[in-house]
Amino acid sequence: MEGLSRKPGILIVEDRKENIYAIRKILEKLDVELIIAETGNEALRHCLNNDFAAIIMDVGLPDMDGFEVARLLYGEERTRHFPIIFVTATHFDDYHKFKGYKVGALDYITKPIVKPILLGKLQVLLELYQKRMEIGALLGEMEDKNKKLAGEIERRKLVEEELRQTAEDLERSNRELEQFAYVASHDLLEPLRKVKSFTVLLSERCGEKLDEKGARYAGYIVEGAGRMEDLIMDLLKYSRVRSGSVSMVRTSMKEVLDQAISELEAVVRDSAAEITADDLPEINANPTQMRQLLENLIGNAIKYRGDEAPKVRLAAERQTGNWLFRVSDNGIGIDPEHHDRIFTIFHRLHSQEKYSGTGIGLAICKKIVESHNGKIWVESAPGKGSSFCFSLPDGEEEGVE
Ligand code: ADP
Predict the structure, then answer these.
(1) In the chain, N or C: fewer CB atoms in 10 Å?
(2) Closest alpha carbon to 389 in 308, 325, 293, 313
(3) How far apart are CA 285 and CA 398, in angstroms?
């Protein structure tokens, strides 16, 4: 409130000194800021910049009557709610006419002014003013909070947008990498197969011209090329597992298991492995990738066997919104310190001589499970067998037929 202290302001609009004195005297005990205006214009000027808890206005002013001042104040949004107490001797009729069509707090007292009456009316107006101030402060606080909240929402939107952008970039660069790995592996295979087949041809056709060392070296070339071929083939498989946007259909895990076992027929037979399974559910998944997943996990369960014939079991457990699958074996087991690392590409725990492999199989499994919005992990200890677990959303709430 410009020009006034923080005390509530009361405007006295009165041209006669003795009346001003009388009103001042009546109000002297109130903790208020008194402003005096001797004309209607002066009163209007004060009201331009100040907020008043009450205006005590003489009806008969030198330049215009008090009702005119009130009319002008009520015409302005900022001043229309200033409460006015008219001080009148003879204008009761005018007052009632005026009150009939004007809004706002209006009241009157008659001359001579009776102290308790004026004080009583002012008391009510001061309390109203106090409440108005408190509500104003609360509204101000709320407005500040709203502004802060709006700022915070804006900031979060920006962060979300940045995250979305980063995810998009990552997705794109993954695709490019997959594409690159695919093309590179594909193009590498051809010359490699040439190296291998011509070395085989060389050994066969010119075998008698090679001495024992030469024949051994040719063997190394064929073996190395074969190994490299496995590696490239696995890399190709890895790059073909599309992360995101794989086509999903209702997939019978029982059928997927049968296909995986038939792919592994030779190793199952050679190792005399026993493969059993629970009742397996239908889930929303990509059947090719599911077959690849089970083939890798069951293939490993057989490969990393101990002294006994491999026993592999596929269990399925219903959880809220998920199916938890578990491929358990009675094999050599894995030290817990390697449980996370074995899922990264090329991470192997054994030499080629002991267990052949490329170190890509579990990385493919992880990629498949994650592209289905699932999780994969292992529970195992050396000598205690391993359980490779993966959980997949059952997709039933997505309404897949
Ligand atoms: P690879 O079998 O070609 O080496 P994987 O990515 O399939 O590659 O497996 C990574 C490593 O995890 C393996 O080298 C092996 O040490 C370990 N591993 C995987 N499956 C099993 C299992 N069922 N039992 C014991 N060790 C396993």
Answers:
(1) C
(2) 325
(3) 12
In short, whether 329's Cβ falls inside 6 Å of ligand 1 is yes
Q: Which residue type is seen at 262?
A: S
What's the N-to-C CA distance of the chain in angstroms? 70
- Mean pLDDT calculated for residue range 11-21: 94
- With a 6 Å cutoff on the Cβ, whether 8 touches ligand 1 is no
pTM for this predicted structure: 0.60
Whether the CB of 312 sits within 6 Å of ligand 1? no
Higher-scoring residue by pLDDT: 326, 104: 326
Q: Is the CB of 358 under 6 A from ligand 1?
A: yes
In 51-114, alpha helices (H):
66-74, 92-101
Q: Is the pLDDT of residue 160 over 90?
A: yes
Query: What is the DSSP track for 138-169?
Result: HHHHHHHHHHHHHHHHHHHHHHHHHHHHHHHH
Helix or strand (DSSP H, E) at 291: helix 287-303
Contact 68, 58 (CB under 8 A): no
Work out whether strand 375-380 and strand 386-393 pair parallel, antiparallel, or are unpaired.
Answer: antiparallel
CA–centroid distance, 99 to ligand 1, in Å, is 94
Name the residue with the closest Cα to ligand 1, atom 8. 359
